[in-house]
Amino acid sequence: MTTPFRAVPVGDCIHWVGAIDWSIRDFHGYQVNRGSTYNAYLIRGERTVLVDAVKAGFEDEMFARIASVCDPSEIDVVISNHAEMDHSGTLPQVLERVKPSRFLASPLGVKALHAHFGNLGAEAVKDGDTLEVSGGASPLTLKFLETRFLHWPDSMFTYIPEQAFLFSQDAFGMHLASLERFAEALPEHLLDQEAAKYYANILMPFGPMIQKLLARLDEMNLPLATVAPDHGPIWRDRFPRILEAYRRWSSNTLRPKAVVAYDTMWDSTDLMARVVGESLHEGGLEVQLMPLSGSHRSDLATEVLEAGALVVGSPTLNNQAFPTVVEALSYLKGLKPTGRVGGAFGSYGWSGEAVRQVEEALTSMGMELAGSTKTLYVPGGDTLAACHTLGLQVASALQERLAGEPQPA
User: Fold this and answer.
1) Are 349 and 335 within 8 A, CB to CB?
2) Distance between CA atoms of 182 and 13, rounded to whole angstroms?
3) Which residues pair with 14 in a beta bridge?
4) What are the residue numbers of the active site?
5) Residue-level pLDDT at 151
6) What domains, with CATH codes, occur in the chain?
């Protein structure tokens, strides 16, 4: 019987044999609106190699795609570029069924896989090590490149120099379920949006490490005809676009844009937010208001990625900032959006601690506070004037900062 899932050729002797997850909507706290893929790749040379696996529960789909090319028992080498469970969750089943002669991972990958599953017999390959897949007139070589903290300590790339083909694990990926395997078959705006969201919510904390990796890739001058991540589409002609975006994001290049994130109890803080937003725009900034009652924290992180200013509004509830605001600030702090201009505002009924707590949270993220304001209960004319002033102060501080920074080439 013909297998219901088939492999997709993505290079000379290389097939995509991954799985499509149409239903996932939460990826460890990051809202995935368009599903995802778990990409695995099969290389057919004198040796047959499986690069990465899929999330547990999707092994039947992966094996069916492999079986459309060859009997899975023909796999001689299994490579784990990244030990996170969405790529390694089916490795125990793979190794049991395939019984490869070699199972390879980075030195830290061996440790991580052992911590996840016990001893699977993984063998460490070091940075720069190679593996011959085919020799003779049509050589095929795998070269291993450690990429620590992109985005786990164990992460590594696998590169085929003869085809300029890079398996980049989570780098240059996105959560996007699609039957299209190549980026050029998808709308550019969709790729931009989902790549930014992925970077903001997964890779933003690792900007300095990514800068070093990009510098190393430049130094190595690797030809890159195809870049195959572990999530989302495969890059060919459009790769320079996402590479340039990674240079921009990892260097924390910011735009004249402000995000106003807030929640409200009786619409007082909401009114203040709208006035702050108007004055930020008056000050020459692109402005995005994000009421946290209806905006997910991962969408907030995406908006903050290139924004030079973050202004946060919160009412006070039981001597604390509002729960949605606390959650959003805690989430953002882990992503390390440093170097922005900040501001705080809010309405309170009794004690009014929220604005101070917001200020402290923004300062702890490495943001420069341009001002704050708060009011008892319903904002009157003086308070709204103060909100207007706050927006202008933030806009002025950001414009001044951007004017003093060298522009990216």
Assistant:
1) no
2) 17
3) 11, 43
4) 28, 82, 84, 86, 151, 170, 198, 231
5) 82
6) 8-250 (3.60.15.10), 256-398 (3.40.50.360)
